Amino acid sequence: MANQRDARRIAMALPGVTEAPQGFAFSVENKGKAKGFIWVWQERVQPKKPRVPNPRVLAARVANETEKAALLGVDPDKFFTEPHYNGFPAVLVRLPAVSIAELRQVITEAWRCLAPRDLVASHDAGPAAPRARRATRSRSAPPARKAAARPLRRAR
């Protein structure tokens, strides 16, 4: 059984993720814009009244309508939708019905849908690859930049 604390922990462990200052929503920046990939479901409790947050349900982006249909067909006790999300690539997830492992998979896939390709690639490479890259850059990048910059200045 998962809850919002689990969702927050999983989302914030992904690279480039920020949490909204108000409400329960997480986004990743892509091309200078924050792209929301999970958020609390705003439920219409009473007709013609404002929607209210339902902390037991999470809305999560999916890649496309085909993936949405596949998730909805897996287990209707875990995944569902409502008319508000018709034509929009997102599913609603009942947190008490999913395991933490399932929630991790849903959140990670939602993040993948909107994260920049290079961020996804570095995440897929694992934790060792970004550290090694940073160490290499900090030791060798400045001299290489200076050496490369000098010939360009002389040629101009």
Short description:
By secondary structure, the chain is of the alpha+beta class.
Count of discrete structural domains: 2
- For the record, give the distance between the C-alpha atoms at the N and C termini, rounded to a whole number: 65 Å
- Top-tier CATH class of the largest domain: Alpha Beta
- Low-confidence parts: 129-156
Give helix % range: 40-55%
Order of strands in the sheet with the most strands?
Answer: 1-2-3-4-6-5
Shape: globular
Helix segment count?
5
What does this structure look like?
By secondary structure, the chain is of the alpha+beta class. It folds into 2 domains: 122 residues, Aspartate Aminotransferase, domain 1 (Alpha-Beta Complex); 31 residues. It is built from 5 helices and 6 strands; from the N terminus they run αββββαββααα. The chain has a 6-stranded antiparallel beta sheet. A hairpin with a 5-residue loop joins β1 and β2. α1 packs across α3. The longest helix has 28 residues. The C terminus is likely disordered.
Which helices and strands occur, and which strands form pairs?
Blueprint: H1 4-12, E1 17-19, E2 25-30, E3 33-43, E4 52-61, H2 65-74, E5 79-80, E6 90-94, H3 100-114, H4 117-125, H5 128-155
Antiparallel strand pairs: 1-2, 2-3, 3-4, 4-6, 5-6
Helix pairs in contact: 1-3
List keywords for this structure.
2 domains; 46% helix; 24% strand; Aspartate Aminotransferase, domain 1; 156 residues; 6 strands; alpha+beta
